[in-house]
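In response to reviewer comment 3 from the previous cycle, which asked for concrete evidence that the modeling workflow produces usable outputs, we include below a single protein chain processed end to end. The sequence was submitted unchanged, and the resulting structure tokens are shown without manual editing.
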Amino acid sequence: MYVGVPIAIPVTLSDGVASVTSTLTVSVEDDSPIITSGPVVASSVTLDETDGSDPLSAGPPLVVTSSGAIISAGVSFGADGPGTATVYGLTLQGGTSVASGLQTALGDQPITLTLTSSTLITATYNGGTQTAFTIQMNANGSVTVTQYTALEHLVDGSTAAAYDDALSLIVGGVSLVNATATYTDFDGDRVSGTVGIGGAIIFRDDGPSIDVTASAAVEAGVLLTTSDDGTEGAGSTTASSSANFGGVFGLTFATGADGAAAFRDLHEGRCAAAKIILRP
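The workflow returned the following structure tokens.
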């Protein structure tokens, strides 16, 4: 880059007999900033639906901010030196509106990512009328993710792994969300870097919980009487008796941030009758 008007300097050469005059043009070339390393992902954001309401959409959203700037690069500002503060932003891979590959836990509704501004991505569902989560780039380069509804996770079951499996914003090995950083030197020249951060935004699952307790007061009134005459010696007797023990047990449960999908009543009716078989 050249700055200002080139300087023309008249130059005369002479050998003592003849002379010739010409012009020497001097131009000043500016120095520009360059990225010497990176950019790289420098922090991350993890949201755990276990910390949300039951269900998540019925209470306050989950809000988590990365511990520092999510993008970092080595920059040389050259002779001019550093200028104004770094400007951070967000972009989407493939346009301003892309399918996220994610769904809501309630209703399995597909979620679309939209670049609302240069620093905000909004994830919506139900035809764009409801917000699943937002990704906000802050002035210092940190990222704040706000989650309003639980997401459909891919591992089902009753194990610890099923209760805590993770989702990200990577589809087919490609990050859907990118962070940008623009660096400016003292005389206003700029250089920008971009890195995918889809793998640095993590949504962890929540699992249901259940607590079955015995009522001591009711349990004290349950009495089972059997007659096992003949069990002594080589003979044996089998006796069975059925009774309703429903009042003995209490049941509390929580479906977690995902909300309820199905419930089997273990207290009233289905498992209230207990059958006891005695075999010596």
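Residues 227-237, 262-280 have pLDDT under 50 and may be disordered. We consider this sufficient to address the reviewer's concern, and the full set will be provided in the supplementary archive.
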